[in-house]
Amino acid sequence: MTSNKKVALVNPPLPVDIGHHPQFPPLGLAYMAAVLDQNGFEVKIIDCPVNKISHDQLKAELQAFQPALIGTGSMTPTVESAFKVAQVAKEVCPEATVVMGGPHATFCDKEVLTKEKTVDIIVRGEGEETLLELAKGAETGQKMEAIKGITFRNGNEIVQTANRPFIQNLDALPLPGYKFLNIEKYFV
After folding, report:
1. What angle do CA 180, 148, 32 make, to 5 degrees?
2. DSSP labels, 51-109
């Protein structure tokens, strides 16, 4: 990962056959953005569905921002779109670390890393503390094996660290980073 403190969080474009307009902001990404922002990282949320950003348009967004860390979510119906996000990310930001989280990646972590070589790290479960630790670790040189709740490649081996405990005090989290979203585009 490069030395900059830029992190892009991408909500993947919806497949054409799903095609509904999201009604609510991506709360998980907003929480992760707030935690990263609170810790001095420059964050950009790219919510492709609500902003009608295609994979091709995503290239320009990432190229302009040049993040060191790019995170995307994955639900089973949108996992192929999330894979395409990872491919686009590596194409335009080859030095960036590409992280995938969400339900699909959490439960199919080894399969995702086996299938999609452009995904560097899987964040399993709640991402707020894990993603922050990954972002900080890139600067401090923390060993990946010491970060709980991730799955990654080490050569040809896939390594799964211990599960991270659930966040016990949710009040310790900052409020969601709605400032990173075009909030007027949502029906809240």
Report:
1. 5
2. HT--HHHHHHHHHHH--SEEEEE--GGGHHHHHHHHHHHHHH-TTSEEEEESHHHHHTH
The answer to whether the beta carbons of residues 123 and 105 sit under 8 Å apart is: yes
Closest Cα to residue 69, out of 149, 135, 119?
A: 135
Decide if 72 contacts 10 (C-beta within 8 A).
yes
Question: How far, in Å, CA of 117 to CA of 146, rounded?
Answer: 22
Query: Tens digit of pLDDT for each residue in 32-70?
Result: 999 999 999 999 999 999 899 999 999 999 999 999 999
Predicted model pTM: 0.92
> Mind listing the pLDDT tens digit for each residue in 157-173?
999 999 999 999 999 99
Query: Quick one: DSSP state of residue 175?
Result: P
Cα–Cα distance between 123 and 109 in angstroms, integer? 8
CB burial class (10 A; 0-12, 13-18, 19+) of residue 173? middle
Backbone phi, then psi, for 140, in 5-degree steps? -90, -15
